[in-house]
Amino acid sequence: MRRLYPLKFIPILKDKIWGGNKLSKMLGKGDGSLKNIGESWEISGVDNSESVVLNGFLKGNTINELIEVYMGDIVGEKIFRRYGNQFPLLFKFIDANADLSIQVHPNDEIAMERHDSYGKTEMWFVMQADDGAKLVSGFKSDITCESYLECLKNKQLDKILGYTDVNEGDVLYIPAGRVHAIGAGVLVAEIQQSSDITYRIFDYDRKDSFGNYRQLHTDDALDVIDYSKNENPKILYHLKKNESNELVKCEYFTVNIIDLNDCLEKDYYEIDSFIVYMCVDGGCNVLTDNNDPVFLKKGDTIFIPNECNRVVIEPTPSVKLLEVYI
Predict the structure, then answer these.
(1) Burial level of 153, CB count in 10 A (0-12/13-18/19+)?
(2) Domain that holds residue 138
(3) For each successive 10 residues of the chain (326 residues), what is the average pLDDT?
(4) Which candidate, 175, 295, 259, places its Cα nearest to that of 225?
(5) Are 258 and 211 members of one domain?
(6) Whether residue 200 lies in the annotated active site
(7) What is the pTM of this model?
(8) For labelling, which of 73, 153, 188, 266 has a CA lying 20 to 30 Å from the CA of 5?
(9) Are residue 301 and residue 183 in the same domain, yes or no?
(10) Is 224 helix (H, G, I), strand (E, B) or coil?
(11) The one catalytic residue among 82, 114, 200, 214
């Protein structure tokens, strides 16, 4: 069997009512045919949205097909034992030209019971934010379900939601159960569990292109929501040059940031996991044993199979990468 190599995938672009043009103008996504690109799914194993390989001899294969053939060599032995042929994470870039709906995601137990799906825990890295842009993460104080429903009924959720101003480089962790929303003017990189289950609880009375209100999931959300105060919406982190800096570590993923202006060699042998790099600024060449270098620019995402556990990153001349593994 031929050796694995760093994989690029064809981005899956999602037209959204709240989408804009930052993904095309700032990250070079699409061909101009979509006017409101809200999301670019960079690597996905979600049904009906499976990522397809762009480069090399595996071009044309989906991510889940590769796992079926290469198993632990591509994702890691522990990950293959846990998830089988299903790719466990979903990587996105999101452009909120308008406010996204106020929403919440179920945990694994509830999602499996109701939807035969994993739940959705996620994190955001802010790549760009317009002046005054905000995100919603949880509530500003502990509330009861009854108080929440009263505010929802009277369209006064803004009185209880935890709004936070954001700037480039901010990081937020959104565990399942936390009410949240991306505000207008924010471009984020998102790493999440492989799930497309969302309970929409408020959508500003917007109508879709057919004049219909989008579906709300008020009842479904009630026993999912964490009604406690979110004390610290932003993750505080130290950014040291030319090394991995931890942003988020949970049972579903570890996300680090690497800010390079010098060559860096990484040995991932002990991790037993695939590695994904999302380039959030600058550019670099990524090299693995006996493979041609792969160039990354801002907005590119690359998948490093578990088998390719020695990686060299050469910035051109500088780069910021999100480094993700399980």
Answers:
(1) exposed
(2) 12-222
(3) 92 96 95 89 97 97 97 98 97 98 98 96 98 98 97 96 98 98 98 97 88 92 97 94 98 98 96 98 95 95 96 98 98
(4) 175
(5) no
(6) yes
(7) 0.96
(8) 188
(9) no
(10) coil
(11) 200
